Amino acid sequence: MKISKNMQNALNNQIELEAEASSNYLSMASWCEVTGYDGGASFFYAQSDEERTHMLKIVHYLNNLGIPAVISATKSPPSNFKSLESILKIALKNEQTVTAAIHKMVEIAQKDKDHSTYAFLEWFVNEQVQEESKFETLIQKFELIGRDKLAIHEIDKILGTPADTSA
After folding, report:
1. What's the distance, CA 59 to chain centroid?
2. Nearest residue to 7 (alpha-carbon basis) of 122, 123, 101
3. What is the dihedral of CA 75, 85, 137, 150, to 10 degrees?
4. In the chain, domain spans
5. Of 9, 12, 82, 133, whose CB has the highest number of CB atoms within 10 Å?
6. How far apart are CA 4 and CA 44, in angstroms?
């Protein structure tokens, strides 16, 4: 099966985006761990692993087509954050960026009549709906529970509660 150069470039760009997301979440997890947010640390370490899994799905997809995946260097993520709430807001923005990139790839697949890649990308489209919803719900907890130390402690505990990890 052949895919267009345009689609190859988009998939390779997505590999870089997923790698950056994994790296960002790893940095967030590290910050949480040092700051004493054990729940946040566990949550973001899992998020980092999930993004790496997403990256590998794309790597394998390209490689299985006989197209060597391009593994690019990523820029260093920030290592200092203002608060647990600010991290969740940054994470939501990152997920929205990933969603936009996936939607762009879906458009390329449709334009190219590339049904196989379109079917492959469907999983990512559904995954992004869950990801954005997860972060919106977590951010909402600050409005519902509050921002004092006890509220933040409760939100950290919520973050540490294992959720559905369908990577």
Report:
1. 16
2. 101
3. 150
4. 5-73+81-160
5. 12
6. 35
Task: Specify the DSSP element, H or E, that contains 4.
Answer: none
Q: How far is CA 133 from CA 68, 96, 118, 126, 130, in A?
A: 33, 10, 23, 11, 5
Q: How many CB atoms lie within 10 A of CB 136?
A: 12
User: Each residue of 92-136: pLDDT tens digit?
Assistant: 999 999 999 999 999 999 999 999 999 999 999 999 999 999 999
Q: What residue type is 22 in one-letter code?
A: S
**What CATH class has 5-73+81-160?**
mainly alpha
One-letter amino acid identity for 111? K
pTM to 2 decimal places: 0.94
Signed CA dihedral, 64, 104, 112, 6: sign only:
negative
Write out the DSSP string of 117-143. Answer: HHHHHHHHHHHHHHHHHHHHHHHHHHH
**What is the rounded CA–CA span in Å between residue 121 and residue 115?**
10
Say yes or no to pLDDT of 166 above 50: no
